[in-house]
């Protein structure tokens, strides 16, 4: 999950991708539940309900992605990026 979080930060935020300009990344990698994750929340509102959750399972390569952004036009891009990163490709474009 750390690699996925770093890729999301690099590809979506540090690159100043306009599709993600309204959001902030909130990593939650230290999880006692065994489900490290990162969240996308409205920019400037870290306490707001997450719009996207990308969650892993300790000891598994499985990654779950859910939240309202998955049903938006950017959802297909998110799904493609997360699938590619989960398969080991660290690139920013599909």
Explain what you see.
This protein has 94 residues and is an alpha+beta fold. It has one domain. 28% of the residues lie in helices and 22% in strands. It is built from 2 helices and 4 strands. The chain has a 4-stranded antiparallel β-sheet, with helices on one face. Strand 3 (52-56) and strand 4 form a beta hairpin. Helix 1 packs across helix 2. The longest helix is centred in the N-terminal third of the chain and has 13 residues, at 2-14. The chain is globular and about 35 Å long. The mean pLDDT is 91.
Number of domains: 1
Structural class: alpha+beta
Q: Percent range for helical residues? A: 25-40%
Helix/strand order, N-terminal first? HEEEEH
Spatial separation of the terminal alpha carbons: 19 Å
Q: State the shape.
A: globular
Strand segment tally: 4
User: Within the largest sheet, what's the order of strands?
Assistant: 1-2-3-4
Largest sheet: 4 strands, antiparallel
- Low-confidence segments: none
Tally of helical runs: 2
Strand content: 15-25%
Mean pLDDT: 91
Rg calc = 12 Å
């Amino acid at each position: 999950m750390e690699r996925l979080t770093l890729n999301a930060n690099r590809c979506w935020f540090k690159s100043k991708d306009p599709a993600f300009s309204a959001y902030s990344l909130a990593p939650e990698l230290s999880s006692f539940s065994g489900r490290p994750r990162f969240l996308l929340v409205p920019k400037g509102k870290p306490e707001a309900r997450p719009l996207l959750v990308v969650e892993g399972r300790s000891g598994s390569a499985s990654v779950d992605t859910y939240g309202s952004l998955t049903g938006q036009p950017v959802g297909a891009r998110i799904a493609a990026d997360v699938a590619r990163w989960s398969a080991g490709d660290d690139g920013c474009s599909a």
